[in-house]
Amino acid sequence: MSRSAIKIRHSLLALAVSASTLSISAQAEELRLLTWGGYAPQEVIDQFEKETGIEVKVTKSNNEDMISKLRATRGAGYDLVQPSQDRITGAQKEYRIYKPIDLSKLKSDRFIASMLDATKKNTSVNGKVYGVPHIWGTSGLIANSDQQNLSFNDLCSDDYKGKVSYRLKRPTLIGFAFAMGEDPFAAYNDQKKYAEILGRVEQKLIQCKSNVKAYWSGGDALINLLRSGEVTLAMGWDAGGWKLHKETGKINFVAPKSGALGWIDTFALPAKGKNDEAAYKWINFVMQPEIAAKITDSAGNFTASVGAENYVNKALSNSYKISYNQTSLDNIKWYPPVPAGLEQLEGKTLDRIKAAQ
Predict the structure, then answer these.
(1) Domains 9-136+263-319 and 138-261+332-355 share a fold
(2) Which CATH architecture is the domain 138-261+332-355 placed in?
(3) To which H or E segment does residue 57 belong?
(4) Contact 238, 139 (CB under 8 A)
(5) CA gap 60, 34 in Å, rounded
(6) Any idea what DSSP says for residue 306?
């Protein structure tokens, strides 16, 4: 082979290697995000892409769909997903669709510490953490905002006779259990003990059934009952209370003395994600309080970002600060994964309460 032919061959090889490297590099600068609607608003995506050069491709989903997609691909197809914290450990044990999170790559001081600790605990498998918190919400009480020292037990108080509303769903059972001095989450792995707790809650709710103006099934129905004054104390979601506070200046969400009940949607890494570094950059980016506030405005719920409440619109910020201080935030009872069989026990309890005269 001539020298010129060898040079040409080397040049072609160099070009091929260069093209391959560029292709890999281009592929690496992409974040495939599987998330809920509103959690990745375009304004935030545009700012992230501008600052990092990483293109964000968003697929909207929900818990069942996320697990289904990752199960079908054994954890491939996405770089970052956002399941609820109680949907991680069971799926991981059964399908191995996630990889552990390297906490050293996160700016942990941007997270509300109690939420980060709770999520780490509730998403751990064999000592490894598989989720960190992002969006959260709670259920508690909705009442006049000057009534801050309230308990779920007040739903059974004579002071509110005929003026109470709540859902006949598991959060009501859980909320009353905590208010009665029980710890239902600690009894999750002991069905006999859990059934005993449910029995005591059932008895209480039947005894004060006359307090209930109506059992609500949808958030709009509850808001209408409170707005009209037909109901003056209700168990409901924080966002509903804040909406009414914006309207009325009086009614607001109240964190009960025993603790509001909280859910958290997390950040988790799929087992075969290709760009973990981009995922960590996105997490650290959106946990900045100014960015987190934009996500709150889009999603309607707060994030676990420290100080983000100071950057959301003033009305929502004021409502939030009336509902929560650091003590009540740290006292939120976060839902852990539900063991098999408990929902059936709860369903039978709720049926008996509904049927009772």
Answers:
(1) yes
(2) 3-Layer(aba) Sandwich (3.40)
(3) strand 55-60
(4) yes
(5) 6
(6) T
pLDDT in tens, 225-281: 999 999 999 999 999 999 999 999 999 999 999 999 999 999 999 999 999 999 999
CA–CA separation, 291 vs 305, rounded Å? 9
**Rounded to the nearest 5 degrees, what angle is found at the Cα of 136, between the Cα atoms of 135 and 139?**
155
Please name the residue ranges forming H helices in the chain. 3-28, 42-52, 63-73, 89-95, 113-122, 170-179, 191-207, 219-228, 238-248, 276-286, 289-299, 314-323, 326-330, 342-355
Question: Mean pLDDT across the stretch 95-124?
Answer: 97
Identify the DSSP state of 164: E
Cβ atoms of 225 and 95 within 8 Å: the answer is no
C-alpha distances (whole Å) from 155 to each of 97, 193, 268, 314 are: 42, 25, 38, 31
In the numeric block, which tokens belong to residue 192? 């006999």
Domain range list for the chain: 9-136+263-319, 138-261+332-355
What secondary structure letter does DSSP report for 339? P
Please, how many CA atoms are within 13 Å of residue 317, restricted to the half-sphere of its CB? 12
- 259: phi > 0 → left, psi -120 to 50 → alpha, else beta; which? left
Residue whose pair of structure tokens reads 């988790």 in the numeric block:
268
Q: Give me the mean pLDDT over the 279-302 stretch.
A: 96
Compute the distance between CA of residue 280 and CA of residue 294 in angstroms, rounded to an integer: 19
pLDDT (0 to 100) of residue 1: 53
Residue type, 44: V
Superfamily of domain 9-136+263-319: Periplasmic binding protein-like II (3.40.190.10)
What pLDDT does 9 receive? 53
> Quick check: 15 pLDDT over 50?
no
